Amino acid sequence: MKDLNRDPALEQIEHEVVMLLRRADFKKTLDGAENNLFRSGYLILNLLQQTSPLAVRELADHFQLDVSTVSRQIKALENRHLVERRIGEHDGRVNQIFITDAGKRSVVKLKKERLMVYDSLLAGWSEEEKAVFADHLARLNRKIESRHRLH
Amino acid sequence: MKDLNRDPALEQIEHEVVMLLRRADFKKTLDGAENNLFRSGYLILNLLQQTSPLAVRELADHFQLDVSTVSRQIKALENRHLVERRIGEHDGRVNQIFITDAGKRSVVKLKKERLMVYDSLLAGWSEEEKAVFADHLARLNRKIESRHRLH
DNA sequence: TATTTTAGTTGTATAATACAACTTGTTTGC
DNA sequence: GCAAACAAGTTGTATTATACAACTAAAATA
């Protein structure tokens, strides 16, 4: 086996990723100042804006989350009238989740805010650099997702 | 103002970062399978391994966390005998936090495990790509940190 | 039809975090 | 030199995100 302690880039990636992850809990910095939608809700609405309706199960599969987690997140969005649910016509167990107009407006607004934050965080980066970074992040995420899929 | 919706790289970065952040709560994938040390404890021990002792306040400043947060994290590490605290000699308010030998062994072991995870996640990446990615992550993190510093 | 499978909810637990209230020391200012 | 102000930490409380287990209800299957 290769000596992992002799790969400074790898070490730095490990360190920087864990530091970045820590920011996840740090709402004010990365989630936008005045938003009233959190990470989970944002991601769900974002997906529902593209494809709606989706069942709770489908959302959970898409994000590789436990159904119970998504169930609660949907409940929170529903309480705020950002999504609606209807019982599946052909299957009474299924809850079809629809994004509401208010939900669409919310997600558009929040996305705009978030893009402004990122634009300012990445001020000074060339388009080339941003494209490369986006690609690297995507590669890492897809790999993490594929690992997760194998339990 | 530039039209942010016309910058696909920026949009992708925004999306991939939020997706990656979500993994933060997903311990099994990124924190290593059999570890018994979580993100917060790992980062603290890692720092203490380099410079020890540090006061609770100093740790909080370093990580830009609330002192109460660090106080609890230290308590957890102390319960597991990975750190020790001594009252400051010149200032009875200060708690000097020392990493123990067990703490050092733990962090070395966990770091090795984590590097193996990252090595496998980044299998197929060239050294050049890893170096560029590390640099990009570091730039983003430093920028996030500097924003945070301005409250 | 009886059994099994599937969709979703609810109970419980954990990790990480912030803010506010509090205690205990240390400085400072008169 | 003492009272007031300040600083370091801890503890109480709340929030977000999550998983796993136990449960209910509906559908599929045998």
Q: What is the CATH topology classification name of chain A?
A: Arc Repressor Mutant, subunit A
The count of domains of chain A is 1
Order of secondary-structure elements of chain A: HHHEHHEEHH
Basic shape of chain A:
globular
Q: Estimate the mean pLDDT confidence of chain A.
A: 84
Helix- and strand-based class of chain A?
A: mainly alpha
CATH class categorisation of chain A: Mainly Alpha
Largest sheet of chain A: 3 strands, antiparallel
Name of the CATH architecture of chain A: Orthogonal Bundle
User: How many strand elements of chain A?
Assistant: 3
C-alpha-based Rg of chain A, rounded: 18 Å
CATH level-4 homologous superfamily of chain A? Winged helix-like DNA-binding domain superfamily/Winged helix DNA-binding domain
Bin the helical content of chain A.
Answer: 55-70%
- The number of helical segments of chain A is 7
Biggest sheet, spatial arrangement of strands of chain A: 1-3-2
Q: What is the CA-CA span between the terminal residues of chain A?
A: 24 Å
**Beta-strand residue percentage of chain A:** 5-15%
Seen as an oligomer or otherwise, the chain set is: homodimer
Low-confidence stretches of chain A: 31-35
The greatest interface here is: A-B, 57 and 58 residues
Keywords (chains A, B): DNA-binding, Transcription, Transcription regulation
InterPro entries (chains A, B): ArsR-like_HTH (IPR011991), HTH_MarR-typ (IPR000835), WH-like_DNA-bd_sf (IPR036388), WH_DNA-bd_sf (IPR036390)
Organism (chains A, B): Sporolactobacillus shoreae
Domain HTH marR-type (chains A, B): 10-142
